[in-house]
Each structure stands twice: as structure tokens, then as C-alpha cells.
Amino acid sequence: MKKILAVAFCYAAFAACNNPANKNMGTQDTQFDGYKERFIESLWKLNPGWASSVGYHKYDSVLVVPDEANRSVELAFDKANLDSLKGFDINALSDNNKTDYKMIENQLRSSEWAINEEKAYEWNPASYNVAEGFANMLSNDYDSLDTRLHNFYLRMASVPAYYEAAKKNIKNPTTEHTQLAIDQNGGGTSVFEKDLQDALAKSHIDAKEKEAITARAKEAANAMKGYADWLKQLKNDNPRSFRLGKELYAKKFDFEIQSGYSAEQIFDKAVQHKKELHEKMFALTKQLWPKYCGNKAMPADTLVAIKQMIDTLSINHVQPDSFQAAIEKQIPELVAFIKAKNLIYLDPSKPLVVRKEPAYMAGVAGASINAPGPYDKNGNTYYNVGSLAGWPKEKAESYLREYNHYIMQILNIHEAIPGHYTQLIYSNQSPSIIKSILGNNAMIEGWAVYAERMMLESGYGGGNTGQAPPEMWLMYYKWNLRSTCNTILDYRVHVKNMSKEEAIHMLVNEAFQQQAEAEGKWKRVSLTQVQLCCYFTGYTEIYDLREELKKKLGDKFNLKQFHEKFLSYGSTPVKYIRELMEKE
Ligand code: ZN
Ligand code: ZN
């Protein structure tokens, strides 16, 4: 080990001495590291709520009042930092700093755009809600309860001013976001009325201070309710449409997804991909029909036939009481398969800790990765597996059909190995606080979605045949159809005016979703923008990059090396990883 390090150092020294352009490499990086520290410190000062949510609690006593003056402060911060960035020669920075540079720059530009052009603070009344921040101060025990309650008290002082500023900002809000804000703010006061009282009872705070806290909590709750009432009575003859429109959508897509493709290009690709998925699914349905349906006539409508085959296969699922055990059992199987096929190095010193989901997550079945935040270095990463104990029989049955024998394996690939969990371990090896804070969701989700396909292509689930079985592929395509249709839905709703009826029709008949899932998706697409595109976009970019490198390198292409190299850049937008990998 020592020897390898020594060789590496020699090489670095040699390169630096012989290349005059690289002479300042060390100093530029050192300076940039210093700059990043200052940037983050002032970012937290400006955004105490965000800071608190990632585990940085220095500014917990501050609630920012979202008024015009505050927006000016933010714009000044963006401008000053964009100027600071110009002082660095990006080419002289390490790969890690190069990508950090681009991600900071994107964050600053995105903030400017949100204030000057998107202006959600005018049309989205649901962007104002203090409940969650206060609730987290009570439920997360990062500090003594008395300290947290003291900060809670100080922070409450600004709640009335916060909602006054909100009322001043709002102009022609959308009906959908107005209703959401009424529901959330009207129903969110329990944090001041009940949760706070429970916490006070457990604390060591004296009676006099408790009284002061309770009095202030009353004012905070009144301000929140007052805001909901104000919205109910708001005269809004000309509500803005919740649809973002082509121009804003394209920009938002660029800032949030940070893709090498435009929103329109990704939409076109998704439409094409859906068509291909339907063709593949029909071919598999024809192949599987005799095995499962014998002589029964196949429906003439191809989509109806596919749906029947999916329903037939979905009956293959575990019993409710063995759901957790079945998920746990698969983890070592995935590890063994990856090793046997030489797909990616898995650090044996960091096995995945599978646990029953903690009580506060109870009721959410399925599985999810729980990673420690950037300021919680000693925290464990867990794979939370939900239990179906106590579920009504019908609900459990419907859930198990959805997460049937095949989909459950795909879920494990996505969430755990080699999906999110593996990606996380690699990203922790090139630590960057910028990437843990501004990490690119399209890359993170894209990797997990890519991993699903890659595992099936490598023959997962096929045992000695070396080929994933057709049942597995059909279910995988259904699963993949979900992220593909998320992208189509988002774009068509926000840019092409798709109606609710058309949307539900597409999700139920062309993506084979349940009515309830489709209704939930409609609600989500009417309240968010662009988010739904991250899965398909990241996946497409990674897959395209891999196929291009394969073509370019021919026999020299090595899948394991590609995966390890790709992940070594951390949670960076794929377009930047592409630049760096192409250069190599
Ligand atoms: Zn069943
Ligand atoms: Zn995911």
C-alpha cells in the first residue's frame, strides 16, 4: 500500500514540475477550498432553515422574513459569489473542485432566476409554511431539549412578520397552490398548540419562561391560521395557471436537472422510449401467453393484452408476514451476483445495515435508504424495510401485487445494491460538502434506474441460463414505463396543456397504473414542475454515455471500470462527468 502511495506522489510531483501550466494547481485548489468554506458559511447564514434541515444548527434561532429586502440580500449574495468564482481559473482546479465550481455557479444562477423570472413567491402561496421547520426542532434531538426550546422561542418571534410578508408578496396565485396552502397552514398549527406543549412538559424550563413561550406560540398559531383565512377570502378573479409554460419550464429544467439535453429533447426521447417499451412488452406477452394462459384467446388490443399478462404475473408475491425477510434475503444474493459477473467493486468493510423501519416511519411500507447528512459524519446508513403488520388484508394484497416477486428485486437493485447505497459509498470516497448539499438528483436517481437495466442485461434472476427471464423483463419494463411516463406527463402538462382526463388515461391505459396512483400523480404534477423528469433524464444520459464509450473503445471497454470511474466523481450532473470521462 505504502509503495503505491509513494509512486503516486512521485508522479504528481513530476507532472507539476514539468508542466508550467500546472504550476499553481496546488494554490488554486487551496484557495478554492477556502472560498468554498466561506461560501457555505454565508449560504447558511442566509438560509437558516435549509441549514437546519441538513444538520447545521448555528442559526436555528433565526426565521428569515421573505420580504423584498431579503430578496435584495439574496441577489447581492448571488452576484458577489458569481464575481468571486470568476477569480478562479477552473482549468487549474482538481476534478472535484471543477465540478464543485460548476455546481456552485449553477446554484447562484438558479437563485437569481427564481427571484427575477420564476417568481414563485408571488404565485405559490404554499411556499409559505413554517410548520416543518419548527416541528423538526422538536423531533430531532441534535441538542438538549432546553436549548432547542430556547431557539424555538427566539425563532417564533418572526412568525407574524413572516406571514405579513407572504401576504404582501402574493399576486394572482394559482388555485391549486392556494388550496394547498390553506390546507397546510390551516391544519399545521398543532406544532404550536400540541407538540410544543408536550415538549415543554418534558423540559426543565421554569414556569415563567414556559408562560412566555406559550404566549408567543399563540401568536404564531394565530398568524398561521390568519394566513389561511386570508387566502380563503382572497379575491382572485384571474388566477394564474399552475402550468409553467414552455419558456419557464425550459429554464427550470436546465437549472434543476442540469442535463446535457434540453427539456424538449428529453421529452422527445421519452415519447420514443415509451413506444419501444410497448413493442418489447407486447413481444414478451405473446411469448409468455401460452405458458400462463394456455388456449385462452389473447385480447386483440395489444395494451389490454399486456395488462392482462402483468396482472397474471403479479399474483406471484410473498405473504405479508414474510415481506421483510424476503427483502433481507435478497441483499447477499445481489452482492454475490455482482461479484460473479464482475460488475463493480463493492467495499466489503461497508456492508449494508438492514433494519426494520423506525417507528416514526411506520406505515410506509417498501424500502428506503437512510443516509446521514453532511454534518453527521458518524451516522450510519440504513436500509429501512417496512412491515405490513396490521395492514387490512385487501390493502396488503394490492400492495404485494404491486411489489410482487419481480418488482421487489428491482426495488432492491434500485434502493440498495448496486443502486443508491452503492452510489453513496462511492460518493463518500471523494468527499465534497458542496455535492452533499447541492448533489444532482438526476444523477443520483438516474444511476439507480440505470442499475436496474444493467443488472437485467447482465442476466440477473436467470440463474444458470445467464439470461434474465422474460417475466422479469416484462415487469422491469412496466417499472421503467413509470419513470418514462413521469417525464412525458410533466412536459405535456406544463408545456403542452395536457388535460387531467388525458393524463389519467395515459397513466392507467398506457403505463398500467392503478386509478389511485394515477390520481396521486396528477396532484403531484399540478403542484410541482420538472422534478418528475429527474429519473428518466439521468438514466438516459448515463445509458447514452455508456453506449458511446462502448462504441469508441470497442474491445477495450470494460463495464466494471466504467461504473467505478463514473461513480468516482460523486453526485455530479452527468454532463460534467461526461466531459471529464471523455477527456481521459
Ligand atoms: Zn395474492
Ligand atoms: Zn431512487
Write out key terms for the chains shown.
584 residues; mainly alpha; 3 domains; 27 helices; 68% helix; globular; binds zinc ion
Describe the structure.
- The protein is mostly helical.
- It folds into three domains: 2-118, no CATH class; 126-233; 257-583, no CATH class.
- 68% of the residues lie in helices and 2% in strands.
- The protein contains 27 helices and three strands.
- The protein has helices at residues 2-18, 25-46, 48-53, 68-86, 95-118, 120-123, 131-139, 145-156, 159-169, 175-187, 190-202, 207-233, 246-257, 263-293, 302-314, 323-341, 393-402, 405-415, 420-429, 433-438, 441-457, 470-496, 500-510, 515-527, 534-553, 559-567, 574-583; strands spanning 353-356, 367-370, 382-385.
- It has a three-stranded mixed β-sheet, with helices on one face.
- 34% of the residues are buried.
- The model is unreliable at 1-23 (pLDDT under 50).
- Bound molecules: zinc ion (2 copies).
- Residues 315, 317, 397 line the site of one zinc ion.
Helix-strand blueprint:
Elements: H1 2-18, H2 25-46, H3 48-53, H4 68-86, H5 95-118, H6 120-123, H7 131-139, H8 145-156, H9 159-169, H10 175-187, H11 190-202, H12 207-233, H13 246-257, H14 263-293, H15 302-314, H16 323-341, E1 353-356, E2 367-370, E3 382-385, H17 393-402, H18 405-415, H19 420-429, H20 433-438, H21 441-457, H22 470-496, H23 500-510, H24 515-527, H25 534-553, H26 559-567, H27 574-583
